[in-house]
Amino acid sequence: MNIIQPHRNGDSGFLVSPALCIDLDGTIRKSKTGRHIEKPEDIVLLPNVEATLWNYKNQGYYICGCTNQGGVAHGFKTPADNVAELEYMSSLFQRNPIDFITFAYHMDDGKIFPYNMRSLLRKPDYGMLVQCEVFAWQKGIVIDWGKSLFVGDRPEDKGCADAARIRFQWAKVFFKWDAER
Question: How far is CA 33 from CA 39, 86, 119, in A?
């Protein structure tokens, strides 16, 4: 196993760390019913998620959740619903390994203003990765994007990684899921 340890960069006091950017829906969580998440209690973590994320965390990765939540733009849920879902999801971990979660409520074809406008936050754009970098910087961490990884289950996730020029891996490979899950 190749272990990448975060390190202090000279006298600056900043910690240099690669990021593990991870999608949420279909990547680390899903609905118990197999449909869209309709309420927090409907969320379950997918297999191998917690152990795998902790493996990367213990190697020194800064873990960022990045999730499109266009249901807000369409009026299926509210920003408060999203926060409740994130809080519930966090409670499912024995110990939550995620450092930061960012989200995009926007979809151009949505019906709810202001979320019906184009946003650079929404994947496949990489605005959420910029938010991760800013948050890490505020915590004294410089993200080493050259050693970072994005994991997801949809073409938008791969598009985000490609646009940001960071490595990408499909969730089923990353978490070692077989064909049945």
Answer: 11, 18, 30
Residue partners of 111: CB distance under 8 A and separation at least 6: 73, 74, 75
**Total of domains in the chain:** 1
Contact of 21 with 126, CB cutoff 8 Å:
no
51 burial level (CB within 10 Å; 0-12, 13-18, 19+):
exposed
Cis peptide before 6 (omega within 30 of 0): no
180: in domain = no
Q: Where are the alpha helices (DSSP H) in 11-167?
A: 49-58, 79-92, 127-138, 155-164
Instruction: Supply the pTM of this predicted model.
Output: 0.91
Q: Which CATH number characterizes residue 148's domain?
A: 3.40.50.1000
Query: pLDDT for 102-143, tens place per residue?
Result: 999 999 999 999 999 999 999 999 999 999 999 999 999 999
Output the pLDDT for position 66: 98
Tokens, residue 159: 């598009």
Structure tokens at 35: 């449909």
Q: How many angstroms separate the CA atoms of 45 and 37, rounded?
A: 12
Which residues, in sequence order, are bridge partners of residue 30? Answer: 44
Q: Coil, helix or strand for 121?
A: coil
Give the residue numbers spanning the domain of 136: 19-174
